[in-house]
Structures are given as structure tokens and as C-alpha cells.
From TrEMBL:
Cited InterPro entries: Peptidase_S1_PA, Peptidase_S1_PA_chymotrypsin
GO molecular function: helicase activity
Keyword Ribonucleoprotein listed: no
Keywords: ATP-binding, Helicase, Hydrolase, Nucleotide-binding, Virulence
Record's protein name: Pre-mRNA-splicing factor ATP-dependent RNA helicase
PANTHER family for this protein: LYSYL ENDOPEPTIDASE
Superkingdom, taxonomy of origin: Eukaryota
Amino acid sequence: MVDAAKFEFDITNDAASYVKTYGYLQIRNTAPTKGEQIYIPQHPKGGAKKIAKTQDDADSQAALVLNLDYSIAVQGVTYNHLIAYSADTEVGSSGAPVMSRGDNSVVGLHRIGDCNNAATPSNQLLSALEAIVSGNDGIKTA
């Protein structure tokens, strides 16, 4: 199960102007690698954007992917096949993209915070997204 929100709006008449104004992110068609450096642009508690790029408050070590097949139980529900990482995220950041520092592509969708940061990996997101929107350049091939 992919934990993602689906927004519906019609941009087919002038999609290029939306891309020019807001830009877009490319999602990687493969999962990240263990040890890959990542960052997470987030809007904690609906506030101003902050970028979680380190694994501690001292900003001394880059955030890394730690586990590629992570499982965790939250409020009686077990989530499987997630990626786990060391980014220092804040409350209210679920739904933020997990980005690779190497190529700036989306490698996951942040969904679990606190001490157990985890995301749905990009390869799982991709199958759900392709069912909604196919044939676009938002997919980064490895």
C-alpha cells in the first residue's frame, strides 16, 4: 500500500507554464542504495521550508539510507518494505520527498518520523504514479 495523497486538477491546457513557474521533481525508477546520502525538503507543522540533510542536530554527519527493507508497527499497523534513513526530520513532514544528494531525484516519500524515519521507496511509488499519469519526463531512469 502506498501512503500518498492524490491531487486532481487540470493542467493539460498549459502544463508548460506550471512547470516554468513551479518546476518539477524527477522520481527515480529504482530504489535508493544502502548508504546513499539523502536530504528531505520539509514544511514541519505546516511552517516554513526546512531541509533535513543531516542525521543529528549538530549538522555534522550527512543523512544516509540505512535499510532497504524496513518494517515498523505504528499504532497497531505494520508497514513493510520501506526504506529507513537517518535524516533529522520534524513533526508534520509526512509526504515530503526523500531526495538523493547524488542526482537530486526522488528516492522515496517520507511517511514515518521521530526516531524511526522511513519512507515508501521510489520504485513502489512509481507503479502507483504510472497508473495515474503515464508517459512523462518526470521519471529518471538509472
